[in-house]
Amino acid sequence: MKEKLVSLLENSYSPYSKFRVSAIAVMNDGMEFSGVNVENASYGASICAERSAILSAISNGYKKHDFKELYVMCDNDKIGMPCFICRQVISELFDENAKVICMNPNGDALVLKVSDLCPFPFGEDDLKWKLVL
Question: What is the DSSP string of 113-128?
Fold first, then answer.
């Protein structure tokens, strides 16, 4: 997987930060969806590699709980972590025991479960409220 992620870094569109990120979402059936970060001069319009890969899977018909694992690579020696917007998307669509493998181009990796990466997820139950008097 390391070689695929390193190759994908070349597709990153990161003219402002020069911080390239690649990701591959692996589905339960073995299908893979890749993504890279795509920046924009209007920073809010940028998208992270993790969400790019995940949303590609959803766009191709996959559903919540169809995700097996997610690989993420930043182009420096540090092992980068998904941002908190990406963590929210991951916690929404992946099972809590799914793996998130964060790597650097040297092959160093940190393997986490979604529940480790997102210990206090915000989900559908948080949208249900009761008036307590």
Answer: EHHHH-SS---GGGG-
